Amino acid sequence: MTHWQRNTCVRFRPRMQHDFDYVFFQRGRTCCSFVGRTGNGKQTLSVGPGCDMFGIVLHEIGHLIGFWHEHSRPDRDEFVDILYENVKDGERHNFEKLWKTQINSLGQRYDYMSIMHYGSRYFTKNGRETLSPRQNNVMIGQRTALSQMDIVQANLLYKCHRVTDCGGTIFANSGNFTSPNYPNELPSNIGCAWIVTSEEGNTLTLNVTDMDLQGADEDGECRNEYIEIRDGMGELAPLIGRFCGNDTPTSIASSGRSLWLQLVSRGPPAPPVDGTTHYSVSRGFLVNFEPGGVCERTLTETSGRIKSPSNIETSLQGIDCAWQIVVPEGYYVALTIEDVQLPGYDRSDQCHLHFVEVQDGNSTDSTTINRLCHSSQGVGLISSGSQLRIILKSSPSLQHASFSASYTAIDIDECMSDNGGCQEACLNLDGGYACGCSYGYEIAPDGTSCVDIDECLTSDNNGGCSHLCVNTEGGYHCDCPQGFTLAHNKSTCYDNNECAEVDLIQCEHRCLNTVGGYRCSCHAGKFFTDNNECAEVDLIQCEHRCLNTVGGYRCSCHAGYVLAMDGKRCEKIPGCGGNLTDLEASFKSPELPVENPYDLDCIWEIIVEEDLQLSLRIALDPWEDNDVCREYVTLRQGSSPDSRELRLCGTGDVPDMYRTHSNVVTVHFRSAPPHMGGFTVEYFTTEKKHPCGGLVTGGKTILQSPGFPDHYPNRVDCVWRIVNRRGRHVRLRFRAFEVENQEDCTFDYLAIMETSRQSHRLIGRFCGSKLPPTIVTSEGDELWVKFQSDGTVQRRGFSALVEVE
């Protein structure tokens, strides 16, 4: 606080009993502050762990007094690049760009050195840059002190009248200032800036009454020593002119209430051609300023105040003022006329002589919204577009006339009228709007209509499908050809082993599984004579699937359906399968018609959050135990086709509790006629535990990633220490390996390191699906195996055999 007070006119004092609004500094969990005064009483500035340092607190106080982040400026894309791919998840909001209606830099240039600027690696998720300056050799994110531009903006924001020998902020209607050391020798290698601001409603006239600076170059340009004047508060304001030499410029008038003057002196000029070293000494300049005489202004800020000049009451020519308000397209102007004083003229027949008129546009021919001919207060008006014109007129006989008003730009909500012309969603934006579409659709070239996205064509990988990609209205899904089944991930097809379905396949001798099907074969000395009727697609009328049999064929249905009595159509069975995502629930087998002569398959998929694991309690009731297992319930944990599976054929097979280490369980119920079997399942969840790592001292041990062969969880960090106490050989044999692939293995990886008293050696860091060296041999004191995963992609992990010989 002392640093802010020393450099600006902002002052802090302890809260008094009568103060409603105040700031409370607290040691919280985060580093944060509201921007500016909220007006709701107590507002908190939180100083969290690691934030109680000078520069960080200086930054947070900057928010408190009204500063946004420098890299949030509307013009920031000209100066920095935001590398969103390196930003931590959930932290993108810290890099949002604000609109001109939200942030006002008071005409000052972009400031890399601002205390409000982030550093280049703030909120990085991988150690790489999140903010990159577009200008070379600049530093960002300093937390040492307020920059010169921070001080200038704070002084302008709080109307601080602070003037030094070399620049400052001046709030006055008239006065003067000089260059450093005037009228004596002007110091070299300096740069000073003065910002002069008059009362609201006034303009300024600036007179350079004396100027003694180095002259222009041979090409007529002022480069080495000059003054530069701009029509506004800073370097971004319109340039009026650059002046040097001894000829003073003519009077300079502002269009608004501020003028900016900068002095640049880079030192003595180059020596004359004749070799002499004599040159004249510059004395600098003397400037005075006074209220402007022109009662006409154009206002382009998104909000502001208008006030009639304070010196017009003595005018002998009367008053004839005009203010033109111009805000960005997509906004309208909301004007509040706070006070109009036209004393002594309340007669309507004098309205052509003394009035305040508001016009809806930018010319004298624009439509009149209102004309006030007498003293008034609190009149509100709204334009139909982005421009509004205000005229104040009175005759010379009217004394002490005055006028004050305020205005602000209000965003036009284009979506309120006919949904903005959008077919689906209309999103109102600051200064405009945009049409949007539901998931699976995109905006058509006309910018308003929605068309379906063909995900199967627009993606580079067939929509992620291993076999068939089927586009649907507003989406797509993966499908499999006959002989394959879609895996739990809904994108991969794996081959069915039809030969395992003994009650469906009727090969007399042998059944040979093939990719996408099967075939029968005969013992030696026999030959096969059956035709494959399922190949005759024009003759077979199976609604779902056709299964070839010896001497014929038969139809079958997808899970959740059963063959109708005609043996061809498939009828859906209510309650036969589904997806469950609740943390705990129960379900039971459906009721089936006992007269139906066909088999039925029901599949339930239980999927809960990744950090949970499932446990199931199963009861077979009623159930008739059978040796051939024609009716059964299978339980498979995990999402891969080769995950562990338990088949229940009778009540003796049912465990007290089926506990898993997975958040995914598939329950498959096969019912055979006369469909007498039934069951109920209850499941619940517990938080996953991922025990991994530890000490290995001898013999043979299996090392596996948590959950193997199912996918390993997020954010695990396992370290196994394999100790070789007697100088033996340590062998590490990899049997399976599948880890997220990345070029330098920084996301998920397995690292192997050999250590001894004398040295440490990194054997390698591995990721992807390629096996590390099948056998890793070590004679060191210890072999360290480290497995680490981040918070995104998951794979099956690894399995390795350790032998300490």
UniProtKB/TrEMBL annotation:
SMART domains associated with the record: CUB, EGF, EGF_CA, ZnMc
Domain Peptidase M12A positions: 1-161
Source species, domain of life: Eukaryota
Cofactor(s) required for function per UniProt: Zn(2+)
Binding site for Zn(2+): H59, H63, H69
Domain EGF-like: 452-490, 530-571
EC number: 3.4.24.-
Keyword GTP-binding among record annotations: no
GO MF: calcium ion binding; metalloendopeptidase activity; zinc ion binding
Pfam families found in the cross-reference section: Astacin (PF01400), CUB (PF00431), EGF_CA (PF07645), FXa_inhibition (PF14670)
Signal peptide (residue range): none
Domain called CUB: residue spans: 166-292, 295-410, 576-686, 692-805
CDD domains per record: CUB (cd00041), EGF_CA (cd00054), ZnMc_astacin_like (cd04280)
Keywords (A to Z) from UniProt: Disulfide bond, EGF-like domain, Hydrolase, Metal-binding, Metalloprotease, Protease, Repeat, Signal, Zinc, Zymogen
Biological processes annotated in GO: proteolysis
Cofactor binding description: Binds 1 zinc ion per subunit.
Active site, renumbered: E60
Keyword presence, Zinc: yes
Name of the top EC class for this enzyme: hydrolase
PANTHER family xrefs: OVOCHYMASE-RELATED (PTHR24251)
Protein name: Metalloendopeptidase
Organism of origin: Branchiostoma belcheri (Amphioxus)
Primary gene name: LOC109485679
